[in-house]
Amino acid sequence: MADPSPADLVQAAARAAEAAHAPYSRYQVGAALLTDDGHLFTGCNVENASYGLTNCAERTAVFTAVAAGHTRFRAVAIVARGESIPYPCGACRQVLAEFCPPDCPVYVARQEDLDTIETSTLAELLPKTFRF
Fold it and tell me: Which pLDDT tens digit goes with each residue over 46-83?
């Protein structure tokens, strides 16, 4: 089977956003993560009344994939509703850098315009990654 296209990943992220638990911000985010061996994992943001305990969609997807035994990823897509392009936050960029190569494509789109996909690499979004 062929790898999903960027548009396929964006569509999967858009579907994941529908499951978001965002009663405080009303900002529903979805992410789709493609593993090196072709599996697709999705995640959504899960807010908490104690905001520091909120989990972003990207980290939900990564943690779900890792829990299933997958630790190498080759593409990620992020979708949210709103006027701004939903680039990953700094914490998500660092978590993605733990499992993705620097040239990993990051596709982002707004829910209102899924046909307009911006593409960056993880290295462009996090140029001086912390490594241990």
Answer: 999 999 999 999 999 999 999 999 999 999 999 999 88
pTM higher than 0.85 for the full model? Answer: yes
Cα–Cα distance for residue pair 12/126, rounded to 1 Å: 24
> Across the strands, what pairs with 55?
46
Q: Say which residue the tokens 């939900």 belong to.
A: 60
Q: Is 83 a catalytic residue?
A: no
Set 58, 112, 118, 124: catalytic member: 58
Over the stretch 8-46, which tens digit does the pLDDT of each residue have? 999 999 999 999 999 999 999 999 999 999 999 999 999
Q: Which residues, including other chains, have CB under 8 Å from residue 116's CB and lie 6 or more apart?
A: 109, 110
Pick the CATH number of 6-125 from 3.40.50.300, 3.40.140.10, 3.20.20.70, 3.40.190.10: 3.40.140.10
